[in-house]
Amino acid sequence: MENSYQAYVVSHTHWDREWFKPFQGFRKHLVDVMDELMDVLESDPSYRCFTLDGQTAPLEDYLQIRPEQRERLVSHIRSGEIEIGPWFVSPDEFLVSGESLVRNLLLGFRQARAYGVEPMKVGHVPDCFGHVSQLPQILAGFGIGNATLFRGLASSLTRHEFQWNAPDGTSILGVLMESEWAYSSLWYALRDFCEGALPYDRAEVVRRIAALRDKHAARANTNLLLFMDGVDHSPVWRDLGRALRDANADLPGFTIQQSRLGDYLAELSRALAGRELQQRTGELRQTSREGMNRLFMGTMTSHVRLKQANAACEKLLALLCEPFSVAAALLGKPYPTGYLNLAWHYLLLNHPHDSICGCSIDQVHRDMRYRFDQARMIGEIQLQERLEYLAARIRYTDAENLEGAPEGQVGYVLFNPDTHPSPRVVRLSLLLENGFMPEHLLLQMPDGRPVPCQVLERQAEGGLYKEHHAVPIYRGGTRVDLVASLPEPIPPLGYCTLIATQSPTRVDQPGSLFTGPQTLENEHLRVTIAPNGTLTLRHLTSGYQTEGLLAFADEGDVGDGWNYVPPRHGAVYSSVGLPASIRRLADGPLAAQVEIEQRMEVPAACLDGEHRTPETGVNTIRTRLTLVAGCPYLDVETTVENNTRDHALHVLFPTGLTEARVSAADTAFDVVEREIRLPDTSGWPEPAYSSWPRHSLVDISDGTRGLAILSEGLYQYDIQDDICRTLSLLLVRGFHNVVGRPGDPDAQSLGTHHFHYALYPHTGDWQAAHLPAVAQAFRLPPIVTRTRTVWRGVALPQPKRTLPPAQSFLSLAPAPLILSALKQAEDRDTFILRFYNPSDHAVEAEVRCFAPLREAYLTNLDEERLSPLALNEGVLRVPAGARKIVTVELVAG
Question: Which of 44, 134, 537, 863 has a 20 to 30 A CA-CA distance from 483?
Fold first, then answer.
């Protein structure tokens, strides 16, 4: 070739912690790989370095088995021979929150520093199934100005080096590896030949390296080429030094050397300085045009219970436990650092792409359930302890001499986890002790103002309870789900107090939200239920109306954990032609509740890739609708008793918004708009999907009116380019092929499933309707804690009640801003506040804290201070640019 090229060979292993083997199976292989790696580094001077897949978790997995090798391993890390980080684990990006991506990097950075080095400053995401729009901004927040990847773009359409822009304008260097070879170009070109049974063939080795050089040079913007020497779980290649010496000797004008990935990126960045590169903006979700770079959209719905557990744990730790732990810490209770670090550790171990994506063997997903349970239990215990600590410090009136609820009354504290005020009419879950009759329940504010309430449901609850210095006792009562109309909203990320008493007679609240036999109506919505269980929904403000909502469709699935594949000859079964059982569960002035039951008889399984079986089974679907006075959305809870195999159950929402051109859905720190009309991908191995990832909202709007679906733990939606602009959610997916083999039963998702979502019609588009804030509020209903001043008839020691009856711990305004974290700083005894602006308009954030603040700093995501921020009478104001993630350090006074 005329040009002189220099190839950088990055020796590595792509480490799936668990996949077609369980964790312990792959850990055995990891120990062998690491032992051999250190032996080679110490015995072969030509073998210079090894990149550990951009992760640090394999190090702790190894050292748990080989603790005696710690000093030896650390020596190789500090010498630069083993390159580690920046991630703790290599995550999927669409199935975890933006905050989880940040915590993953925070842990990876700190583990690397604990070994005495800075982590590799490369955004190495080699095998993620597509990439979120804000990854450039996230990586830049940790001082990383590049990303190496191979999915989400076709290498035939994008050069090896490109500029990747986040929605806020942050730009990083993207390095797109070959679609044909993924993150393993040298391995596929050379090692599969050299490590076979044939003897080493110098001429063939040199020929293959030359061919690889020519292939890479055709896409490169410089003369610097990247050869990736490794594949999934691959050990070191002992003949690498020999192959490099032969190529350097036999290929004039060409040099090839072993390199760390970070060193290659540093050299590449210098070589590209000042050059114009191809531009790519936002999320990278181009389906596979060639090669191996599929997006595997089926992973969004595989093992849905795991997805729901993940969403619940992320919310519990980041949006409940940590913020209230900060509030308690500002009042003197130590922040539970050890507990929360351990909970996050368990949670993050479930975020590798082959784990959270649900495309592994059953044992992997059973192990995940254990880790989710540990994270959940730690979080729940710490949250309850902090809420009780706070509740014990709250006065029930402003009178200084009244520290608890009055005698004969029970005090409750209503905590609002959202950084915006709650609605006035709220759903609450109260535990009434034995002797309290729900029919006689009266609620009032501490100042005596009545709080109208309507009980929806009750259930006996009890168990053993233990005070710190006492023996366990049984405590029982009745758990009531009710709707209460408060005189004012609960303050942002704050609380108000409520007192419960018993009326001597039954309390009945007159009024109804039913305006017809099957019609519910409040100030915003009218909902009519058809005999087949579908809904007609009318938005009273705009006049927007759509019908046929809540139909269910069942289709066969002969795919696997990666792919949802309908059989070639399989009918779609619909609930539309079936009768539904409809019954009222509750009615009153504050809420109406209806249950719709449908029994769908569908094929029991699939025979092969062509047909579903003639044998049938019955899946029962029960949907509970709750319309609350003043609430702008219809609350929906669907329970599915799944008794059949090899199928997918969808719930459909024809929007009728024929002029809508895009869907909008939230992902990590962003809301992404996607064209409804798909591009022409005829002949591609993986055609474009009408299905897309989401977190908690998806919206279809024509600009003047829209319909949003709010939910939690349902990560996929589908939008059809039909006249109805039909939106759907895939609820349950069962399949029998697992990692290329049949037979793992858990993948069939049999049994009971629960789903919670809401239908929210609105005016304007998603930004005008502030949908991210609406979705956040939907996910963060008030939490109720009872205050106890007496135990077994004896007054308990009580702290001084210094907090007023209602207060905000921290508020964040204006409405577009969304809280991501409020936690203790990683390395200082201060607190970190993180929020983001998903809108297209810059705003000024206003932060108010109940505790005095002495200092505030703008930081990066690694929590390094960038600049001081001014405090004006305790109020912090900081610019929040369009689509910007903002991190602030708060120093209490």
Answer: 537
Q: pLDDT (tens digit, 9 = 90+) per residue, 345-387?
A: 999 999 999 999 999 999 999 999 999 999 999 999 999 999 9
* pLDDT band for position 838 (cuts 50, 70, 90): very high
Q: How far is CA 622 from the centre of its chain?
A: 27
What CA–CA distance (Å, rounded) separates 223 from 653?
Answer: 53
Average pLDDT, the chain: 94
More confident residue, 468 or 555: 555
Check pLDDT > 90 for residue 476: no
Reported pTM: 0.97
Tell me: pLDDT of 796 over 60. no
Reduced to 3 states (helix: H, G, I; strand: E, B; else coil), residue 165 is strand
pLDDT-based confidence at 401, cuts 50/70/90?
Answer: very low
What is the identity of the amino acid at 98? G
| Cβ proximity of 284 and 131 under 8 Å | yes
Query: Could you give the CA distance from residue 75 to residue 38 in angstroms, rounded to a whole number?
Result: 10
Q: Are 73 and 62 in contact, with CB atoms under 8 Å apart?
A: yes
pLDDT at 400: 39
Q: What is the CA radius of gyration of the chain?
A: 29
Nearest-10 crossing angle of helices 322-330, 362-391: 30
Bridge-based pairing state of the strands 254-258 and 5-11: parallel
Token pair for 402: 């009244």
Question: Strands (DSSP E) along 668-793, which ranges?
Answer: 670-675, 691-693, 697-701, 705-711, 716-719, 726-734, 737-738, 741-742, 751-763, 783-786, 790-791
Other CB atoms within 10 Å distance of the CB of residue 14: 21
The residue among 288, 383, 371 whose CA lies nearest residue 340 is 383
Q: Is 787 exposed, middle or buried (0-12, 13-18, 19+ CB in 10 A)?
A: buried
- Distance in angstroms (rounded) separating the CA atoms of residues 549 and 727: 9
State the number of CA atoms in the 13 A half-sphere of 781 facing the CB: 15
Helix (H) or strand (E) segment spanning residue 386: helix 362-391
* Alpha helices (H) along 98-227: 98-114, 135-140, 185-186, 192-194, 202-217
What is the maximal distance between C-alpha atoms in the chain?
99
Domain boundaries, the chain: 5-295, 514-766, 809-893
Q: Residue 527 CB: number of other CB atoms within 10 A?
A: 23
| CA–CA dist 434, 432 (Å, integer) | 7
Instruction: Report phi then psi at 738, rounded to 5.
Output: -130, 115
Q: Report pLDDT for 471.
A: 81
Number of H helices, E strands in the chain: 16, 52
CATH topology for 809-893 is Immunoglobulin-like (2.60.40)
Query: How far apart are the C-alpha atoms of 90 and 56, rounded to whole Å?
Result: 9
CB 810 within 8 A of CB 421: no
Rounded to whole angstroms, how far apart are CA atoms 26 and 355?
A: 13
In DSSP notation, 29-85 reads HHHHHHHHHHHHHHH-TT---EE-TT-SHHHHHHHHH-GGGHHHHHHHHHTTSEE--
Do residues 326 and 825 touch, judged by C-beta distance below 8 A? Answer: no
Alpha carbons 21 and 355: distance in angstroms, whole number: 11
Q: Which CATH class, in words, describes the domain spanning 514-766? A: mainly beta
Which pLDDT value is given to residue 613?
Answer: 94
Q: What would the pLDDT profile of 532-566 be if each residue is shown by its tens digit?
A: 999 999 999 999 999 999 999 999 999 999 999 99
